[in-house]
Structure formats: C-alpha cells, structure tokens
C-alpha cells in the first residue's frame, strides 16, 4: 500500500491524498458553498434545490454545509446576501435623510437586476416554506429594518423629521411600495418612482416648519 505523509499525518493511499487536497477548507469552502448555492438556485429554483446538489458543486460534503447552516434556506439567503448585501446598505452622507434616499435607490437598482427576479421567487416560495420565510425575514428584512430605524433616529436628531413618528409605519411606507411593484408588477421600479415615494413620505414625516418652508420655495 502506498503511503503519503501530509503535515505529520499518514494518508493510506495516493487517491486519499488527492481527495483531501481537492476539497476546499475553511473560508474557501464557505465561499465555494455560497457560490454553488447561488448558481444552482438560479438554475433550478429554490424548490428543486437540494443540499446534496450544493455540496457536489462546491466540492464539499453535506456535513460541511450543515456545520455552517441549519438548512438550504439559510444557505441560499446567505449566498444572496453575499452578493447583494454590500451594495444595498446605508451609505454615509452628511444628512440622514439623504442616506435613506440613496439606500432606497441602491435597493431598487438591485431589484431591477437578476437578483430582483430571485427575490420575487424566494418571496413566493416563502409562502409555502416556513424555513425560507424565517431565513428571509431574519437575514434580509429585519436587519434592514433595524438599520433603517437607526437612520430615521439620526434624521430626527438632525432636526429633519418629527420626533413623534411611528418608526414601523414609516419604514413600511418607504419600502412596501417597492416590494409591491416587485411582486405584483404594476409598474417599473424606476428611479423616478422610488424618488417619488421618498419625497412623499419625507414630506409627511418632516417637521412642519421645514415642510412649509419647502413649499414656499417651490
């Protein structure tokens, strides 16, 4: 039997050595899994996707995936977030209200891309898959709602918004129309449409004296 030494360990055969060298580890394995999950969910859809398919494409064992994620829904959402998340956060700007507008524009741009098709598909599947619904809510929706609230609080501190606003209602008014158009298809999610939502909501949430001044300037 041919024996091969590798980092102080003896591998019983050459084929075993090749097999171990061929499997990505740690961060490489993590990235390979995310890449495989995203490619496969685009190719076959969420419902037909299996952990075994992701594992085979990533070159890892299923156990490697389950050590990192509880189910395929969590894998797919993290794969989606790895691609879309960095570009849809709240950018820095002197005024918090501008941060909200810029983030809405960035998110709507993502929704106009192939990732919008994926979000629409995942939202549809989530109605019948509790694990996907939880993953979508906890990994995508809720973190962004928390960030949006922080920025709204910043806008209040800067004197641009009223202090008595209902944060949950404000966030719903800003983002629900975008998701509605994505799902129902009543019209394009254009920059003009998103800017209109932003301006109307901010007009209602703004301090009365600032709103009156803005109207006088028109």
TrEMBL record:
Protein's UniProt keywords contain DNA-binding: yes
InterPro entries xrefs: Homeodomain-like_sf (IPR009057), HTH-type_TetR-like_transc_reg (IPR050109), HTH_TetR (IPR001647), Tet_transcr_reg_TetR-rel_C_sf (IPR036271), TetR_C (IPR011075)
A GO molecular-function annotation: transcription cis-regulatory region binding
Record's keyword annotation contains DNA-binding: yes
Source organism: Terriglobus roseus
Alphabetically ordered keywords of this record: DNA-binding, Transcription, Transcription regulation
Gene3D superfamilies for this protein: Homeodomain-like (1.10.10.60), Tetracycline Repressor, domain 2 (1.10.357.10)
Residues within the DNA-binding region(s): 50-69
Record protein name field: Transcriptional regulator, TetR family
